[in-house]
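User: ok so my PI wants both of these folded by tonight, can you help

Assistant: No problem, let's get them done. Here's the first:
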Amino acid sequence: MPQSNLNKFISKFIGKFIGKFQSRFPSKSFQSQPFGLGLLIIVMVIWGSTFPLMKNAIDTLAPAALVAVRFSIAALALLPFLGRLYPQLLWDGAVLGGLFFLTMFTQLKGLETIPANRAAFICGFNVVLVPLLAPVFYRWFGRGQSPQSRGIQFQKWTAAIFALAGLGIMFGGAASWSSGDFWMLLCALAFALHLLYLELISHRHRVMAITGVQLMVVAGMGLIWAAPILKTQVGEITNNWWILVYLGLVVSVFSTSIQMVAQRLVSAPDTALMCTLEPVFATIFAFFLLGEQMNLQGWLGAIVIVAAMLQSQGILPMLFDRAFRSPS
């Protein structure tokens, strides 16, 4: 199949599959939230697969080249669906794209020095950061319209403390921390801000348009980052072509688009809670694809982190209450 026809086929498939969701779910009604949660589970499975794949790819492929090629593929696939461009769309896409690029940059820097499963668990710390940052974020950018701006509950602070304790247990104390751990904490912060801003603007634009602008911004920043070394990476790009196509079309285009739909139905803190599934799937993929293992201490720390994530949403107290409630 000629390359031009292949591009048309990919674009037509993406447009038909995702375009159906652009205007069907305009509100966060109770009835539509389960559908949004289902979409997020699909996203988490896809995202979980990226950690071992990118870990494997950056063994030979420069992180800058990976970002540049991956998001250039995604941007080209969405180019036919941009439609009319207007200032608010460009601004929101630029902010989302900048935060997305920062997330990718810090994630890849972290994966250079730490295992994929460990990186995934640290990135999952955003589930605590989202509810902690939400009141300040929406006070500044959302004009106080979000229910998350009512203040930080005590359980959010305790969850943050327990999550930090879990990180300490998982990594065996401060002495074992590396630069990769701190890169992944920055990744969690950037991702938390991305989730919050995405919730704020998700209803303003068509799914395909805002997704396309966002990914084009990431592609542009990636090309600037990779410009000095891109020519020297042609051979490695060719060797990793299937990973790059998967990351570009499935992970970047498909999952980002359905995440946009899901966050019209699910709040940012609830989305962050669903993201706790990502390190679970990442650990499973890392075990089968890379043979990575975690010791008992690592699993104990991971359990504490997941418990803190559940505590941050009030789910852990509810489970304890149901488990120990005396029968009437």
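One down. Here's the second:
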Amino acid sequence: MKALVYHGPGKKQLDEVPKPVVREATDAIVRITKTTICGTDLHILKGDVPTVAVGRILGHEGIGIIDEAGAGVSRFRKGERVLISCITACGKCEYCRRGMPSHCEQGGWILGNTIDGTQAEYVRIPYADTSLYPVPESADEDAMVMLSDILPTGYECGVLNAAVKPGDTVAIVGAGPVGLSALLTTQFYAPASLIVIDLDDNRLEVAKQFGATTVINSSDGKAADKVMALTSGKGVDVAIEAVGVAATFGICQEIIGPGGHIANIGVHGTSVTLHLEKLWSQNVTITTRLVDAVTTPLLLKTVMSGRLKPRQLVTHHFALGDIMKAYDTFGNASRERALKVILTQAPAAGG
């Protein structure tokens, strides 16, 4: 089968590799119908994620059709459409029982990290019963792909960790797909104002369309000053970091008000400075989190009801065989005006 393979920092290639097989009774083999590229994949290609070995098939998002189910799989059968969670959950270990499957002792974020991922024609999903979701018959498939990772990530790591409540002033630093997912789901809680900060005017325009009340281009280095002016010097109640670089985390520290929450979503490959000399007395809460995807059922129902419309995050479509072009587009998002790209595999012969 064809798959996108990591060959070391800055190196990737569409290779011919063996089709995965069932190894454990709880495995399922899924024929990918749609997948996508994540900002985390770009971090991997920069060398920021040392757990990813050379030769690994990348990708942790997608939907597909069960091609084969192990004898221990009881919830899914061959031919059924499924949503693949970015988090693999055994459902039994201490961390899964605590509602924190991101740290599952047998799983967690392993797809496209420590085991082969979804940017391929087929993928092996361990613990299929607790790591897959049925796709409703009437579901929009592009929208379903957004439920694999970015929507639960923006919601759990950003909105829930930040304890957003009605009337809050919320700033989201970074208007990429995850930042925009946080923007969409923050609105569940009726904040008084939503400020979005980014370097890209196109993404800021999209943020306004998605519900931002104020947008700020940070290219002049004065974003924090502008936020403080907007809030009469008080700062914001919530600052959500959705990039994963020192500069954006620094902005969050500069704009957070007393008693506020800084929620980090971004994948940080290098250290950042924590300004405790300023924050120690400010009653500020700082949170980090790897998505657990425990809110996927909630978000799925919200999408199916029409309350949440994640399909608007999709800007480009490619055939799975054109994944190298898709990476070029996604990796040059500002030039290409790209948010999420969808990669589609043609139906199987006779299917």
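Residues 2-149+293-344 form a domain with the Quinone Oxidoreductase; Chain A, domain 1 fold (CATH 3.90.180.10). The chain has 13 helices and 15 strands. Good luck tonight!
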